[in-house]
Backbone:
């Protein structure tokens, strides 16, 4: 944790120390409203993915605009959001291990808690932990609909797991988790559409097979920023888990939009300072690997097509600057992170700006919550 903040409310943007994680509130609020408008009047609800931002203040604003609750990927993340007053949290992951199960079921004393399963042993251990604490947990069967990460195969394997949950009080069979994560990074719109069509077919077949046993499937949840329009219109999904839509990173903006898909704005930036100008072809900024995640590629340089971020080390980012004679020592730039989720996890606070002023500084309270 830094011994001081990068900025205080009321400061001019020019006074923000660097590197700092910055949220443009006007663009952020427009993104929230665009998502709310895209789902308004449909039978599909938003469960905003809070692993993207790890910030309770952002979650509160998403819920205020109609989100039913949030998703988290870790039990410790969920604990932060429950403590902040979020009343409906789905851990979109399998939870294994005595310590994690103990913490998970304890959260159900204060909020509605859901969790995923893809193995009968997980069902039995969840039920035992919930029974011991006398709480009810929502359990979802995770179905592998094409991402090939976690999840059981569509059809009979998922049916048997749903049956096991339904007979394992105090668990409640809450539905199917059918997230096609790899579709989020397919650049061509027709590829995304085809991937989600296949995922929707798998979800539909599985849902019908479970319902044929007399077991209700209340929820089919999934979808992300790049694909949610297709899940929304599928006729089988009734919950969307988008998270990055509120911020937009460089990787998502590399996707080409198709007909009916929705453009969101860049709202998240890393503010950085030129700390060295050793040659006419190279500048070095103070935002490196510890300031912006590069797992999805290098950050972009906002509104400077003449600059290219080409290399990152721990505390340095190297820019290629051919012909950019206006870049000088001490200049500040805004970077668009390659991947917003792990970039949020690098910071303790989010500097929120409106126009040329800092309006607020929000804690990223679940930063580092990896348990």
Residues:
């Amino acid at each position: 944790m830094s011994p001081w903040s990068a900025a205080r409310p009321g400061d001019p943007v020019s006074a923000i120390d660097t590197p700092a994680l910055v949220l443009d509130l006007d663009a952020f609020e427009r993104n929230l409203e665009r998502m709310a408008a895209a789902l308004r009047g449909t039978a599909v609800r938003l469960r905003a993915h809070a692993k993207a931002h790890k910030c309770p203040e952002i979650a509160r604003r998403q819920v205020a605009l109609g989100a039913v609750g949030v998703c988290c990927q870790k039990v410790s993340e969920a604990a932060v959001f429950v403590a902040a007053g979020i009343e409906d949290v789905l851990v979109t992951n399998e939870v294994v291990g005595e310590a994690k199960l103990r913490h998970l079921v304890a959260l159900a004393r204060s909020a509605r808690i859901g969790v995923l399963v893809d193995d009968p042993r997980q069902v039995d251990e969840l039920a035992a932990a919930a029974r011991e604490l006398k709480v009810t947990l929502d359990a979802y069967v995770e179905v592998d609909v094409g991402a090939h990460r976690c999840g059981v195969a569509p059809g009979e394997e998922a049916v048997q797991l749903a049956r096991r949950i339904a007979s394992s009080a105090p668990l409640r069979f809450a539905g199917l988790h059918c997230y096609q994560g790899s579709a989020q990074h397919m650049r061509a719109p027709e590829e995304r559409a085809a991937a989600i069509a296949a995922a929707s077919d798998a979800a539909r077949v599985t849902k019908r097979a479970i319902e044929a046993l007399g077991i209700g499937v209340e929820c089919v949840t999934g979808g992300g920023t790049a694909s949610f329009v297709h899940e929304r219109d599928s006729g089988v999904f009734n919950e969307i888990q988008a998270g990055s839509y509120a911020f937009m990173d460089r990787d998502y903006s590399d996707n080409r939009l198709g007909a009916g898909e929705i453009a969101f704005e860049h709202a998240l930036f890393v503010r950085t300072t030129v700390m060295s100008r050793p040659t006419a072809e190279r500048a070095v900024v103070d935002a490196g690997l510890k300031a912006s995640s590069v797992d999805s590629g290098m950050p972009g340089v906002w509104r400077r097509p003449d600059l290219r971020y080409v290399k990152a080390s721990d505390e340095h980012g190297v820019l290629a600057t051919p012909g950019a004679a206006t870049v000088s020592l001490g200049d500040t730039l805004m970077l668009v992170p390659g991947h917003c989720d792990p970039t949020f996890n690098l910071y303790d606070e989010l500097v929120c700006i409106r126009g040329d002023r800092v309006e607020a500084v929000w804690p990223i309270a679940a930063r580092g919550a990896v348990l």
Observations:
- The two ends are 19 Å apart (CA to CA).
- The first strand starts at residue 20 and ends at 24.
